[in-house]
Amino acid sequence: MNAYIIAALLIVLLGVAYQTGWSKSRSLVTADGARVHSRPQYHAALVAVWALVPTLLILALYGYFSSGFTRAYVVSQLPPDVVTGLDQNGLNALVARVRAIASGYGVAGEVQPYENSAGFALRQFQTIAFMVVIAAAAGTGILALLYARARITPRLRARNRVERIVNLVLLACSAVAILTTVGIVASLVTEAFRFFTFVNPLDFFFGTVWAPRFSSTGAGNAGQFGLLPLLSGTFLIAIIAMATAVPIGLMTAIYLSQYAPRSLRAVVKPVIEILAGIPTIVYGFFALVTVGPFLRDLGASIGLSISATSALTAGVVMGIMIIPFISSLSDDILNQVPRSLRDGAYGLGATQSETIRQVLLPAALPGIVGAFLLAVSRAIGETMIVVLAAGNSPVLRGNPLEPVSTITVSIVNQLTGDTDFTGPQSLVGFALGLTLFVMTLVLNIVALYIVRRFREQYE
Amino acid sequence: MDMVAGKVKMTQQTLESSMDPMSSLRPVRIEARDVTVHYGAKQALFGISIEIPDRAVTSFIGPSGCGKSTFLRCINRMNDTIEGAKVGGVIKLDGEDIYDSALDVVELRARIGMVFQKPNPFPKSIYDNVAYGPRIHGLASSKADLDEIVVSSLRKAGLFEEVKDRLAEPGTGLSGGQQQRLCIARAIAVGPEVILMDEPCSALDPIATAVIEELIDELRENYTIVIVTHSMQQAARVSQKTAFFHLGNLIEEGPTEQIFTNPVNKQTQDYIMGRIG
C-alpha cells in the first residue's frame, strides 16, 4: 500500500513538473520573442529533476531511519519494568512481536496486554509518520518545482545542465560493473586470507594431495588442501578441449571465410553460433549420456580402458562447446585481413591454398592466438561439463583416460550443501576461486593485448 | 640531383616516344574483343575491344567508375576472385585465349604481374616479400639463386640501394613510395611478360610519384605495361598508347600524342579539357 502511494506520488510529481517546465518554456518563446537557449524538453527535464531529487532524498532518509525510530517508539511504549527485565535478544524479539501485531499479522503464543497496546500505538504512530513524510516529500517537491520554474529564463542553459545530469547517470551505470568487480575481488581476497590462516599457502599451492575432510568428521583434523591435483586436472581438460576445438574451429573459420559461397555462409555461421547458446549443463548431459559411454566402448574395442567419466570425455565435449567461439572469432579476424593482401598474393599467381596458408594466416595469427587464449580462459573456468563428466576424482595423475577433478568442480563440492564459512573446508572455495580468477585474468589480459596489437596493425 | 636528372631523361624519352608511332610499329601482345563484365545483375563493361602493344606503356584513363580498373582486372583474371563477377568476350595473350578452360589461372598470373592502387606488401620481411613469388613458382633452385632474383628485382624496381642493409626488416615499415616500389619488385621477381598497374601512384605524394613514373619508363624496355590512372598528365607522361573509358564503354583509343592533342571523339575531348569527370 505504502509503496503504491510513494510510486503514485513520484509519478504525479514527475508528470506535473515536466509539464510545468514545458509550458513555462513555451510561454517564453511566444511572449517576447527573445532567443531561448534550450528547447522546451530540456527545461521540462530540468524542472522534473529539480522536483524529484529532494523528494527522493526525503523518502530515502525516511527509509533509512524509520526502523530505528519505530524501535525507539516501541520501547518507549512498553512498560519500563518489562524492558529492563530483558536482554538484547529478548528485547529484539519483543519489538518484532509488537511490529507483527501492528501490521496485523498474527503472532505465536499468548499476546500480553502491554504488547497489544504497544502494537496499537505503533500502528497509529506509523500511519501518522508515513503521512507526515509523504506530505513533507510532496511539499518539498512542489517547492523545488516552483523554484525551478521560477528560474527558467531565456538564457538558462538547461540543455547543458540536463546533459551533465545524464552524463553523471551514465557514469554511475558504468561504475556499477566496475564496483561489482572490485567488490567480488575484495570478498574473494579477504575470505582467501582467512583460509590461509588455517592452511599454509605453501601447502595449498604446492600440496599434491586434495583431501578436505568435512567439518562433521571432526574438527581436529583439517584435511589436506593441495592445489596441484586440481590444477593438473584443470589443465589436462583444457588441453584436450583446445586440441579438439582449435583444429575444428580454425578449419571451419577458413572454410567459411575463404571457400564457402556467400549463401552457405549466411546459413552456416548463425547455426554454428547457436552451439554457443546451448546451456553448458546440456553439454554435461550430452557428455554423460552419449560421449562418455561411446568413448568407453570405443576404447574397449581397441583394447584401451577408458572410464566413461574421464578427462577425455569432459575435454572433448568442452572442446565442442568452444568450437563456435574459436570459429566465429577467427572468421571475423580472417575477414579483417585487408583484401589487398589477398589480391597481392593472387596477383603473383599464388593458389588459394597458398594465399591462405602463407599470407592470410600469418597476417591473422596474432588475432587468432588472442581468440585461442580467450577460449582457454573459458575452458579453465567452465564448470557444469566437468562436474558431470570428469568423474570428480581429485588425484594427481596425467592419464586422460581416467577420472580427474578440476578447480571449479572442487569449489562446487566445497560450497554446496550446509556450509558455515568459518572452517577451511568451505573457505578453501574462496582460495580456489581467487586462483582461478587470477589465471583467467592473466589469460584475458594477454589475449586482449595481442588482439589489440593486431587491430592497430590493420586499421 | 638524381631526381632532376631522371626527370630530364624522362622528358626526353616522352618526346621520343611521342614522335614514334608506337602502336603501329610494335607487335600486338594482348588482344581483347567484345569484353563484357557483369557484377551480379549490373553490367560494368559493354563490349571492349582493344589491342595492347608489346613493350610499350598503354594507359587507361577515364572518370571514376568508368570500368577502366574492371577491364584491367580482366587481363589477369583477378575478377575471378570476386563473387558474382561474370566476364564475356575474348582476351588473347600472344594469340592464346586466357579464359580458355585449358589455361591455368595460376600460370597466367605468373605471366601477367599486377601492382595495386594501395601499396600492399605482405607483413613479412622485405626479402621475403620479393622472394614470395619465386618461391611459390619454384623459380630458384638454390638459396644463391633466390638471393640473385631478389637483388636484381629490387635493383630493377630502383629500391635496392635504399634497402640493401635492411632486407630482413618488415616491408610494411617502408614509406608509401618505397612500399609501392617493393610491390613492383615483387611483381617483377616472378618474371612476368606483362605488368598491370592499377592507379599505382594514387596513394603517393608527388615526389614518390615522379620516381615511380621514371621507373615505369625504364621498365617498358623489357615489359608490356598497362596502367590505369586518374591523372591525365600521368598518362601523357608515361604512356605511348591511351584508351579513354566512359560509363563502361571504350570511347576512343590511339597513340597518346593523338589522344591528347587531336581527339576524334567529342566526349574524349571534353574529358581531356576537364569538362567531364
Descriptive account of the structure:
- The complex is a heterodimer of chains A (459) and B (277).
- The relative contact order of chain A is 0.09.
- In chain A, 78% of the residues lie in helices and 1% in strands.
- With 459 residues, chain A is mainly α.
- Chain A has 3 domains: 153 residues, no CATH class; 42 residues; 249 residues, MetI-like (MetI-like fold, Orthogonal Bundle).
- In chain A, strands 1-2 form a two-stranded antiparallel sheet.
- The longest helix of chain A is centred in the middle third of the chain and has 41 residues.
- Chain A is built from 16 helices and 2 strands.
- In chain A, α4 packs across α5.
- Chain B is of the alpha/beta class and 277 residues long.
- Chain B has a single domain, classed as P-loop containing nucleotide triphosphate hydrolases (Rossmann fold).
- Chain B has 12 helices and 10 strands.
- Chain B has a 6-stranded mixed β-sheet with strand order 6-7-8-3-9-10, sandwiched between helices.
- In chain B, β7, α9 and β8 form a beta-alpha-beta unit.
- The longest helix of chain B has 18 residues.
- The N terminus of chain B is likely disordered.
Briefly summarize what is shown.
The complex is a heterodimer of chains A (459) and B (277). Chain A has 459 residues and is an all-alpha fold. Chain A has 16 helices and 2 strands.
